[in-house]
Design a protein that fits this description.
The structure is a homodimer.
Chain A (H helix, E strand, L loop, with lengths): L10 H16 L6 H8 L5 H6 L2 H25 L7 H12 L1 H8 L9 H15 L11 H22 L3 H7 L6 H12 L14
Helix pairs in contact in A: 1-2, 4-5, 4-6, 4-7, 5-6, 5-8
The structure holds a DNA duplex.
Chain lengths: ~200, ~200
DNA sequence: TGTACATCAGTGAACGCGCGTTCACTGATGTAC
DNA sequence: TGTACATCAGTGAACGCGCGTTCACTGATGTAC
């Protein structure tokens, strides 16, 4: 029965978990190398050993986020009874459940764009978006890209507006009891009468 | 011919101008009260006199941004020869010309949500979005809100993806020479064949 | 027209804070023989 | 099976930095009479 052994054993994972706790609880601004060390119960100099600097840690965290995001998108769109916009619904759901993490994932200024782990995870996850329903294309036409972007921008925009609190004003003038989800469904119903749908493209984003 | 008079005369405006310079040149992270004072050539304690704290300064700056944003949206949509999506084009154009400012405007974590100047300017600007073409409604149905949101989310999403560098991947697999603007037009053309259009709502957002 | 006084705008030194980073260290583990 | 040694993981004190904030101050302006 050893208490607080000198070697942590899985400090990298521990620090990532600690970092996510801080992100959820205190927000991105509070997430520093020292704070992560404190939360994980190790000395403040330990994180540098595993991540180099803060953008290294944030990039790893974002990569992990993209992996989970991708998994949720995948299971939503590939379920046998999945409906047309379930990818978009999963997109919003993930962001709602992990607001700070989602913002980190798309907030380029804090991430290391050269981090291979992040690049890989992002490409995987965002590739799913494009590839939800049609056959993949290696060299899409501008028209095909327009369709892909239409679906992506639509749900990404809705999600960002929601995270930044911009939907509150609309909900205030909406019929009593209207929820964010109801707004989403109303928007999707509008889009559903047209061509704004996900198309397939060969991985990349 | 007086050089560096003790009283600046218009320090508040001077500090806002300095702050925007820093925002454009060095990014949001570099924008501190001390940096703004340095840029404006006054002592570091001066800004607190006018703005209280940093979120006060940032909120004023965002408010000014919304005023200019609103003016550009207005002139784009109310020109006699304006086309259907000119509001959306102006939306993206503003963000492209003022990327850091645009992100600040929509990045709620740095702003003071109770700042009346900001609230007013934001409401004015975003109200235009909803009110681009149809007659205003005081109590819109959920369906009407869905339409409004469709147009807004579409262009906001496109804009955020562009600012965060997410369109680069798409441009890499696009036909040679494709520009961001071409992607936008392709997306709008897709949307143009349906009901995803701005509708009118009585100011608020 | 002048003078006294209050108010306002900006100064500059000082403070404490949390941060990232460095560095010599020590405890634990793995490996060669 | 044991021993020597290299390597790895984490420690803790120390450093310098820029930040926001406080505070006594001073120069400039406005106002009352």
């Amino acid at each position: 029965m050893k208490t607080t052994p000198y070697h942590h054993g899985a400090l990298k994972e521990g620090l990532l978990a600690a970092a996510e706790t801080i992100l959820q609880r205190d927000g991105l601004a509070a997430l520093t190398l020292r704070a992560a060390a404190r939360e994980a119960g190790v000395s403040h100099a330990a994180p540098a050993h595993h991540f180099g600097d803060l953008s290294g840690l944030l990039s790893e965290l974002a990569a992990e986020g993209f992996r989970r995001f991708g998994a949720q998108l995948k299971s939503a769109t590939q379920a046998t009874d999945s409906r047309r916009w379930d990818g978009a619904r999963a997109y919003l759901a993930f962001a709602t459940e992990n607001p700070a993490l989602f913002q980190l994932m798309f907030r380029s200024d804090r991430l290391d764009p050269t981090n291979p782990s992040l690049q890989e995870a992002r490409m995987q996850a965002l590739g799913l978006l494009a590839g939800a329903s049609e056959t993949p294309v290696d060299h899409p036409t501008v028209e095909q890209l327009g369709k892909i972007l239409g679906g992506w921008a639509l749900i990404h925009g809705f999600t960002m507006l929601q995270l930044d609190g911009r939907l509150k004003g609309l909900l205030r003038i909406a019929p009593e009891g209207t929820t964010t989800d109801a707004l989403l469904e109303a928007m999707l119903a509008t889009a559903d009468r047209n061509e704004l749908a996900p198309a397939k493209v060969a991985r990349d984003a």
